[in-house]
Structures are given as structure tokens and as C-alpha cells.
Design goal:
Elements lengths: L14 H24 L2 H9 L4 H32 L9 H36 L7 H20 L27 H29 L12 H33 L12 H35 L6 H14 L15 H13 L1 H15 L8 H23 L2 H7 L3 H31 L5 H27 L15 H30 L41 H12 L11 E4 L4 H18 L2 H19 L5 E4 L1 H25 L1
Antiparallel strand pairs: 1-2
Helix pairs in contact: 3-4, 3-5, 3-16, 4-5, 4-6, 4-8, 4-14, 5-6, 5-18, 6-7, 6-18, 7-8, 7-9, 8-11, 8-14, 9-11, 12-14, 12-15, 14-15, 15-16, 18-19
Length: 667
């Protein structure tokens, strides 16, 4: 009846996951009770859970990423503590638990922190920057988000029912094959990533279509903000690369469930083919994550230097060159596999070449700052911290692109330090810069600057203290994934790395405190103008937070910085100009389709993991029925009357006019 599921699946003999699960369960229960007592359930259902508004979905992506960051960082603290204590001692984590911790850490941080954060920023900002009302496929957008949340749920369920993979964040065979991993840990990984991967692919199709097809009048491609270009490149990579991941993991599932031999040496299989396929996805994935962060830094540097982005067209070219070259470097992940000197040389050179367009971007950001009136707000600090940190990570990456050096360093902590150097210093710093930059637009009030800057300094100091020692340890010969060790020279550096993790933890605490304090002081931090940073692109032309329809009348785009031109024109005319002609606006209706599909996907994934076949069939029928009901809807849209749009827009124009008058007085 319940397949392989029984009481032995609950780890009663392991206090750490049980206590952690109990705490999380109690917190969730308390949150649910609080929401019910406050009477917020109808509001959450109608305004958030069933919303198809790209802004609400973008915020929910960022919230999911933030929650998973706490979970993933808890794993990181556990690993650093284990290695600090495990010199000539077993430490406090048994080997099988330690293996699950580092596997869950990598999986959560890449798939459920970095990916949702950048997709959330793209979802929220891109339609506003394009002068559009929403993304191309609003309901599909909701489905994509809830499927991502479903995958995150499955990873966390493994904490208390069963186990997680012990294979690392990429399940290399033969370790991930049934003979060597007979438990359900690898199955949790595979189904969680398959489900969330479908959600990511839906988001990619949606955003590519939006950027290519849905623009305000006059918004040509070379008038799009830089963030839209990096969004296009990132999502083109998603559309090209994620089907490869889906097919690769599907083949591994067939190996495990039906006895196929795609990735085992029996019956003509080939373990090496898994490496090939997973890294054909895996290296573009790095650029899927970093390109949107590059777009954030482009917006921030232009805004806070008070200048147009230097070398806009060269930035566009560099972005699209990275998009193409990212598919030509994957083999540097297995230089040691015996491909031969010629093949290794070609991919080593390609890896060095891809550093060139990235260098172009760094110089363009520096030249944007040069000669400008730089405002050292929190987003600016994240951007400057990124430039310094990412350049170091990039140089170590070029070093690893040299095959002889990679032979020495490929499985050492040097590689771990390099990877975190670019992912934390690039992707996470970019996400935090975007979060602090666009937060006033999303919620109508600014974040507390003092606490934001304190969090930045804790993060950047903590990062260097935590990860620079790992470069030295890698050069000293310490390999990855070590649960204990007996080399005395390594121990002091691992203690320093653990101290760095504690400093980063202080940064996270300050970010939480910043959010709490900002919410409590939101009236004092209120943004009435919609443009708290004196921005240059169209998202700042709307109210904060924007109405559901974004723009009461779609703007006419003239030039590369349309909103900056509008502000200059309004200052010259000493007012906001003539009122536009308002009309009724059609908007997509909210739909529970995404939430219901994710509900059935979660049940189906859990049932497939535990081989509960009747539950698999029931969940599949439920998901199919949901799509049938959605397809047969009679009314897919509602109308915002012209009077309502005019009322909202007049209030925004009045506040903006007052702000412009104040700006003119200061001049």
C-alpha cells in the first residue's frame, strides 16, 4: 500500500535532523495559526497564492530563495563546524550524515537559492523596464514558480522522511546508481530537480518571449535597458540547457527504476557520458546565474554614478558573446578524464577567451563610475564589492583553465574556493544589490541604509575570511568532501574558515534585522515618488508599488534612457505635461492552476520516490484535470475601468510632480 515507506524511514537514531525538523515544523505551525487568527487566509489566497501578476510572482521567488538561503547556510555552518572539530577526531557528524549535508547544501544553494533569486528579479523588473503590462504567459509564470517551490519542498521533506543523496550536488554515477546508493536519497534529488527544472524551463520560455515580443511603442532592442539584455541571454541559455539536464536525469532515473544501463559499464553503458551531458548543462548554468547579476550591476552603476552606462553597445555584444561561448567550455570540468592534449588545449583556450567579454563588462562599469557623482548607497557597495571579489574569482578560474594546473587542483579546496568566489561574489552579491535597489519599488518604502551597509561589511569580510584560506588549503593538498583529517597544518586554516562563516552569519542576522526594522519604520521610509534613487529606466516611472497594470498608458519610447529623458523634459517644462488619454485595460485573471499543479506534483514526486504507484496515478490524474479545467475557462481576463486607471495614475503624477519641483528647487 505504501511501497517502500515505513517507520524505518524516520531517522529516530539521528537527533540533529529530528530536532531541526521539529523546530521547523513548530515554526510553520505557529505561522499558520497566526495567519488564521489574523484572518489573512482569504487575502493570501486571492492576492498571492493564486496571483498571476509578474510582480507578486517575482516577490514570491525572492522570498523562497531567502528562506532556502537560511536552510542552505545552516548546512554550510554544519560543514565548517565539522571540519573545524574533526582534526584527528570524528567530529559531531557521522560520515553518512555529513555526505547528505554537503549534497543538500550544493543542491539548495544552486537550484533553490541562486536560481529563484535571479528569476524573481527578472520576473519583477523586466516587464516594467520594457513598458509592458505583464509577461507573455502569466498563468504559466505561476505554474513555473509553484513547481520550483514543489522541488524545494521535496528536498526538505528528505530531512525527516528518508534521506537525501550522498553523492554531491551532481549525482555522478556509478555512485548514484542503485547498486551503490540503494536508498531513496538519490531519488529525492532526481525528482526534486526534475520537477523544479520544468518550472525553470517554463520561466525561461516566458521571459525569452516577453523580452523578444512585448515592448512599449518605440522600445527597440537597442533601447532596452541592460538588465533586459542579460535576462534575454540568461533565459536563452535556460531554454537551450535545461532540456539537457532533464534528459540526463531521466536516463539516470531509468537506470535506477527500470534497470537500464545508460551510465553503468554493464550492457554497453558509459559513465563518462553522464559527465559530458551534465556539464553541457552545468557550465551554461553558471552563466544563467551570473548574467542577470551583471544586468543588476549595470543598472546600479548607472543610477548611482548619475551617468548613462558606459559602452552600452559593447555591453550588449559582450553579453551575447558570453551566451554563445558558455556552450563551448564545458570540457574543462574533466581535463583529468583522458580526452587528450589537443582536446584539453582547445577547451582550455576557450575558457580563457570567455574571460574577455567579462573583462569588457568590468571596465565598462569602472568607466561608468569614473567622473560620476557616486552615491555610496547599499546597492553601490554590493556592486563595488562584487567587482573586487569577482575579479579574484575570475583569475583563479583562468588558472584552473590551464590543464596542467587543473590536474593538480581539480578536486581540491582550491576549486571550492574558486566556485564560491564567483557564485557568492557574483550571483549572491548581485541578488543582494538587486534586492536593496528594487525593494522600494516592490513595497513602497526603502530599506534601512545603516543596517544594510553593516550587513554588506559582514558579508564581504566574512567571505574573505571563510574562503581565502581554502585557496591555501587546496594548494596544500586538501581535497573536497573530507569528513575528518589528520594533517596538522590544515587545522588552523579550517578554524579561520569557520570564523568566517560566523561573520557571514552575522551579516544574515543584520539583513533580517534590517527587514524587520524597515517594516516597523515603513512610514518614515515611505517612497511617495516612485523614484527614490533618481533612476534612469522605466520601472521608476510607475508608482511604488506599481499597480497591477503597471502603466495606465503605455509610454512612447524615445532614446536609450526614456525615463531619464522624460524627467529632463518635465523639469524644463516645470511640470508633468498634459494628461494622457486613458482607456479600459484588460488584465489576466488570477488562477489557482499553478498552486494546484504543484500540489499534485509534490504528491507525485513523493510517491515516485517511495514507489507508491496508486498515489502516482491519482496525482497524475489530478494534475491533468487541473489543466483541463484551466483550458476550459470561460473568462480569462478582467477589465480595469479607465476611471480607475486614471485615478491611480493621477495620484502618481501628482507625487512625481511634487518630487520634480523639489529637485528643481535644489538645483
Amino acid at each position: 500500500m505504501l511501497g517502500k515507506l515505513n517507520w524505518a524511514a524516520v531517522p529516530f537514531d539521528q537527533p540533529i535532523p529530528l530536532i531541526a525538523s521539529a523546530i521547523v515544523g513548530l515554526l510553520l505551525l505557529a505561522l499558520i495559526v497566526w495567519i488564521v487568527l489574523k484572518g489573512w487566509v482569504p487575502y493570501l489566497w486571492t492576492e498571492w497564492i493564486t496571483s498571476v501578476d509578474h510582480k507578486r510572482i517575482g516577490i514570491m521567488y525572492a522570498l523562497l530563495a531567502s528562506v532556502m538561503l537560511l536552510r542552505g547556510f545552516a548546512d554550510a555552518i554544519m560543514m565548517r563546524a565539522q571540519q573545524a572539530l574533526a582534526f584527528q577526531a570524528p567530529g559531531y557528524l557521522p560520515p553518512e550524515h555529513y555526505d547528505q549535508v554537503f549534497s543538500a547544501h550544493g543542491t539548495l544553494m544552486i537550484f533553490f537559492v541562486a536560481m529563484p533569486f535571479v528569476i524573481g528579479l527578472m520576473n519583477f523588473v523586466v516587464p516594467l523596464q520594457l513598458g509592458a503590462r505583464d509577461v507573455a504567459f502569466p498563468t504559466l509564470n505561476s505554474v513555473g514558480f509553484w513547481l520550483t517551490a514543489s522541488g524545494a519542498l521535496l528536498v526538505n521533506v528528505s530531512l525527516v522522511v528518508g534521506e537525501f543523496a550522498r553523492t554531491g550536488w551532481l549525482p555522478y554515477p556509478p555512485l548514484s546508481e542503485l547498486a551503490y546508493s540503494p536508498g531513496v536519497g538519490v531519488d529525492y534529488y532526481l525528482w526534486a530537480i526534475q520537477i523544479s527544472g520544468v518550472g525553470t524551463l517554463l520561466a525561461g520560455v516566458n521571459l525569452v518571449t516577453t523580452v523578444l515580443k512585448i515592448h512599449a511603442p518605440g522600445m527597440t532592442y537597442l533601447r532596452m535597458p541592460m538588465f533586459c539584455w542579460t535576462t534575454l541571454a540568461s533565459n536563452l541559455l535556460i531554454v537551450a540547457a535545461f532540456p539537457i539536464l532533464t534528459a540526463t536525469l531521466a536516463m539516470l532515473l531509468l537506470d535506477r527504476y527500470l534497470g537500464f544501463h545508460f551510465f553503468s559499464n554493464d550492457a554497453g553503458g558509459n559513465v563518462m557520458m553522464f559527465m559530458n551531458l551534465i556539464w553541457v548543462w552545468g557550465h551554461p548554468e553558471v552563466y544563467i546565474l551570473i548574467l542577470p547579476a551583471f544586468g543588476v550591476f549595470s543598472e546600479v552603476t548607472a543610477t548611482f554614478s548619475g551617468k548613462p552606462l558606459f559602452g552600452y553597445r559593447s555591453m550588449v555584444a559582450a553579453t551575447m558573446v558570453i551566451c554563445v561561448l558558455s556552450f563551448m567550455v564545458w570540457l574543462h570540468h574533466f581535463f583529468t578524464m583522458g580526452a587528450g592534449a589537443d582536446v584539453n588545449a582547445i577547451f582550455g583556450i576557450a575558457t580563457m577567451i570567455i574571460a574577455v567579454p567579462t573583462g569588457v563588462k568590468i571596465f565598462n562599469w569602472l568607466f561608468t563610475f569614473y567622473g560620476g557623482r557616486i552615491v555610496y548607497a547599499t546597492p553601490t557597495l554590493w556592486s563595488i564589492g562584487f567587482m573586487v571579489t569577482f575579479v579574484i574569482g575570475g583569475m583563479t578560474g583562468v588558472l584552473l583553465a590551464v590543464p596542467p594546473a587543473d590536474f593538480v587542483l581539480h578536486n581540491s579546496l582550491f576549486l571550492v574556493a574558486h566556485f564560491h568566489n564567483v557564485v557568492i561574489g557574483g550571483v549572491l552579491f548581485g541578488a543582494f544589490a538587486g534586492y536593496s535597489y528594487w525593494f522600494p519599488k516592490a513595497f513602497g518604502f526603502r530599506l534601512h541604509e545603516g543596517l544594510g551597509k553593516a550587513a554588506f561589511w559582514c558579508w564581504i569580510v566574512g567571505f574573505y575570511v571563510a574562503f581565502m584560506p581554502l585557496y591555501g588549503l587546496g594548494l596544500m593538498g586538501m581535497t573536497r568532501r573530507m569528513q575528518h583529517y589528520d594533517v596538522a597544518a590544515w587545522h588552523p586554516w579550517l578554524l579561520v574558515a569557520a570564523a568566517g562563516a560566523v561573520i557571514i552569519f552575522a551579516g544574515i542576522v543584520l539583513q533580517i534585522l534590517q527587514l524587520v526594522v524597515s517594516i516597523r519604520r515603513r512610514e518614515a521610509l515611505r517612497d511617495l515618488t516612485g523614484d527614490p534613487w533618481n533612476g534612469r529606466s522605466l520601472e521608476w516611472a510607475t508608482a511604488s508599488p506599481p499597480p497591477a497594470f503597471n502603466f495606465a498608458v503605455l509610454p512612447e519610447i524615445i532614446g536609450e534612457e526614456p525615463y531619464w529623458s522624460m524627467k529632463r523634459q518635465a523639469l524644463e517644462q516645470a511640470g508633468m505635461g498634459e494628461e494622457p488619454a486613458y482607456a479600459d485595460i484588460e488584465m489576466p485573471k488570477n488562477s489557482p492552476t499553478g498552486f494546484v499543479c504543484a500540489f499534485f506534483a509534490s504528491i507525485m514526486g513523493f510517491a515516485l520516490i517511495w514507489h507508491i504507484w496508486w498515489m502516482v496515478m491519482a496525482a497524475a490524474l489530478g494534475a491533468f484535470a487541473t489543466f483541463v479545467v484551466f483550458a476550459w475557462r470561460d473568462e480569462a481576463e478582467y477589465v480595469v475601468p479607465a476611471d480607475e486607471a486614471a485615478r491611480i495614475d493621477r495620484a502618481n503624477r501628482s507625487a512625481r510632480g511634487a518630487a520634480l519641483a523639489q529637485t528643481e528647487a535644489l538645483r
